[in-house]
Amino acid sequence: MAGSEWRALRNEGARRRLERALPAVFPAPVLRHAMSRPLIPPTPRLAVESYWRSHILRAEHLARALAARSEQPAGWTWRLASGTGGGPHASFRMPPAPFREPDYALGRGHCCICGQPVYRFGWHRDLWGAGSPNRNARWHSACVAAWKFWVAPSDQIRALKIRQGHRCAASGKRLLRTAEVDHRVPLYRVWREHRDAPWPTQLAFWGVPNLQVVNRAVHASKCRDEAGERARTRRGTDPCVPPDG
């Protein structure tokens, strides 16, 4: 069987399965996206996941907006495992996530990333009038996509390039094929200078507001300057840079 024939048969079966499983209310953009895929997702949940993976910047913005709605848990502070008093985070390169910590987890039915209720199919709003969260869920599909974006933004370089109009954020020149993703404010400075900022504000340093795509030569120069800054800080010779926490 030719590949096109196999795909047509597979999609016909997936379409029928999806249509049988669809509730009376379902997000129209998600359904349109699912039906336009080369391989149609066969279930509503997979359709939702596919939608957010394909709209990664939208998912990232939504995740931060949901986190701002939850606000920071009382008594929580961003701590590292090697910091004073210990903490759950091994590195400052991982975004802080209070609701993933056992002491602040809200349990099933609430997203462990943003803290908001989770509804059917991993959706963030109660479109079905259920009145209560889905107790079998622990994350929004959008927040899962956003988390993967925060920890590995280079995987989404194409979306970031399009957002920048294929121009280097630092030099304004055309982005080359070897361009790289960079944090405008490096994460070590986020830990030093913004560790006491409200948690939803901290997340922006891992998200789109703090990300840029730059050509490799520009990135190498910036990394060299940052390495020198960190070295001066460790020696305590640069008064403009705060010491490590």
Explain what you see.
There is one protein chain. It contains nine helices and two strands; from the N terminus they run ααααααβααβα. It is mainly alpha-helical and 245 residues long. A two-stranded antiparallel ribbon has the order 1-2. It has helices spanning 3-21, 28-35, 44-54, 56-70, 141-151, 157-163, 187-194, 199-203, 216-235; strands at 180-183, 211-214. The model is unreliable at 238-245 (pLDDT under 50).
Features:
single chain, 245 residues, mainly alpha, two-stranded antiparallel sheet, 9 helices
Specify the number of helices: 9
Classify the secondary structure makeup into a structural class.
Answer: mainly alpha
SSE topology string:
HHHHHHEHHEH
Give the helix proportion (percent range): 40-55%
- Fraction in beta strands: under 5%
Distance between the termini: 62 Å
The 3D shape can be described as: flat
Extract low-pLDDT stretches.
Answer: 238-245
- Spatial arrangement of strands, main beta sheet: 1-2
How many strand segments? Answer: 2
Mean pLDDT: 91
Specify Rg, calculated over alpha carbons.
21 Å
Main sheet characteristics: 2 strands, antiparallel
